[in-house]
Amino acid sequence: MRSDRLRFLLSSHGASPYGAERVLLILAEGIAARGHSVTIELPHDGPALDAARQLEGVRVWHSKRPRLPRNASEMARYVAGAPSALLRLHGAIRRDRYDVVWVNSMFNPLAAIAARLAGTPVVWHLHERNLRGPAALPMAWLVRACSAVSVPVSRFVAETFQRIPGGGGRSEVLFEQFPTLSAVPPARSNETFTVGFVGQFEPRKRVADLLRAIAHVPGARALLVGDGKRRDEVEQTLTRRHLSEKVELAGLQKDVVPFYQRMHCVVIPSRDEPCPLVAFEAMSTGRPVIASRHGGHPEVLGEAALYFPLGDSDALAACITRLKDDPALRAELRQRGLERVRLFGREQWLDQVEAIAREAAGRRHETGRSNRETA
Hints:
This protein is an alpha/beta fold. Helices cover 45% and strands 16% of the residues. The protein folds into two domains: 201 residues, Rossmann fold; 152 residues, Rossmann fold, CATH 3.40.50.2000. The protein starts with 6 loop residues before the first strand and ends with a helix.
């Protein structure tokens, strides 16, 4: 057994097939393969739970604690179930003597509080920057109070917490990791120019900006891969603007590579994007990217994209037209993306995860030694 082997508890806020859970599964698989002891805790049923059970060398704990509330009735159940869930988490953390509890998502305070009460170091992986309204101040304080180190997924996220009085604390940026996708040949130039979107249909993703833009680009169509709570609105927009012939809804897909193959470029119009996984996917498959100059997009994409002001569908339409009419520019952005995505390699990312976890675990050992010497 490795002398530097760590015992990790990876605690998830949910079990959806989306970004934060996907990254946590990659982390679990990667650190288990490096010889560490890994338990992943998922609170309820869902695709992430099913995927976790397929991981080699990873223990899965289906804790069945309350689901994150999406409405008033779920909030009541969440509040009612929180005390018992906190006690179960606290008891398990103390019993199994983890070196580090890796708390996945800002929306997972129960796990962070339970670990803090158990005296186990917390690494709080902050995938979101939803700090608005009256909850912003206590949430930022809670992150600082509970975590040995917080791990925001971009400088954009880190600065959000640092701007709040009493927020910040010890933090280290850890960009998201992404499923490994291979480069595919460029889409055929003799086919209709296809603009891709991959993601959830929800307000922050601003799918409507792309629909307004594509309506003003002759000879181009859109391929939307994803689903979400605003799907009905997207369908209504297609009908109202007579775009059904220009826009294809492909739905949520487990294997996205065949759809990237059909895209001449990928558009990421979202606001407040902490660290866009779709940007990594697009670059790794060799797809030119157009993104809003907002959130974490410039940090991830660098010079490998065209940018437009957030919400400016006319500027987005101009970018699409420019790429459609300039094959040389498409080829240049493709090459820039393939080169840039290598900067975010899996092994370097896991090296950083290990270093962060060892530092957090070492702080507890140093504290314990100091307390014994003082006594």
